[in-house]
Specification:
Layout: H1 3-19, H2 43-56, E1 60-64, H3 69-80, E2 84-87, H4 96-99, E3 104-106, H5 114-119, E4 122-125, E5 129-131, E6 136-139, H6 148-152, E7 156-162, E8 166-167, H7 170-176, E9 184-186, E10 191-192, E11 200-201, E12 208-214
Parallel strand pairs: 1-12, 2-3, 2-4, 4-7, 5-8, 7-12
Antiparallel strand pairs: 5-6, 6-9, 10-11
């Protein structure tokens, strides 16, 4: 036994001797947050919290309505200068293809290869759920969301979120999600501060995240 091991054993023996015969510790409190223990947020208050968190994460936010989502998409893409944009299968806001002929909407069937995805100006998807407290958008590969690479390779990600998809907390979001699906959790643009604590965006995904929030 090394001197370090001997010292360790001596410390453990002393601790055991000191606590021997003492009262048993009280069981730890486990008041975990659950989907049922969510804050009483709803309506505009819930949406405003989501907007606040998204902006704090340096995401762009555009408020709209379900009826005006197509013009909002066109406005976002036009301001971005995005002319060639992938659209996840199952998501094509009514009238979008007629409002702006200069925007080339690209499908992903058959799947675009990484080089083709990288040449796009951006991607348009929906989402599975949005979490107000954390400003997180979750995609599960369902209808209107596309495969994971579709939303990770292009430098600009435009995502449509409806009010019905917004929940207050992570436990509420987890309760809505299927854990067997490919879940992508997005909190703002892709970024890292690993090197010298300097924030660098666009490392593991899109450099710019823009959210159209429809109420």
């Amino acid at each position: 036994m090394s001197p370090a091991d001997g010292a360790r054993e001596e410390i453990l023996v002393r601790v055991q001797t000191a606590v021997a015969g003492g009262p048993a510790p009280a069981p730890p409190e486990r008041a975990y947050r659950t989907a049922e223990r969510a804050p009483a947020l709803a309506g505009d208050e819930l949406l405003e919290l989501l907007v606040d968190r998204l902006v704090d994460y340096r995401a762009l936010v555009r408020r709209s309505t379900t009826a005006l989502v197509a013009p909002s998409v066109v406005a976002a893409l036009s301001e971005r200068g995005a002319r060639r944009v992938a659209v996840a299968e199952g998501l094509l806001p009514a009238g979008l293809d007629r409002l702006e002929p200069g925007i080339d909407l690209v499908g992903d069937d058959p799947s675009l290869d990484p080089a083709a995805l990288d040449r796009l100006d951006g991607v348009l998807t929906g989402c599975a759920v949005a979490i107000a407290e954390t400003g997180t958008i979750v995609l599960d590969g369902g209808t209107g969301q596309g495969r994971r690479a579709l939303s990770l390779v292009p430098d600009y990600h435009l995502v449509v979120v409806t009010a019905a998809q917004v929940v207050a907390t992570v436990p509420q979001a987890v309760a809505r999600l299927d854990p067997t699906r490919p879940l992508t959790w997005i909190s703002g643009p892709s970024a890292t501060s690993d090197i010298e604590l300097d924030r660098v965006e666009g490392v593991h995904g899109p450099r710019t995240l823009e959210v159209i929030l429809c109420s």
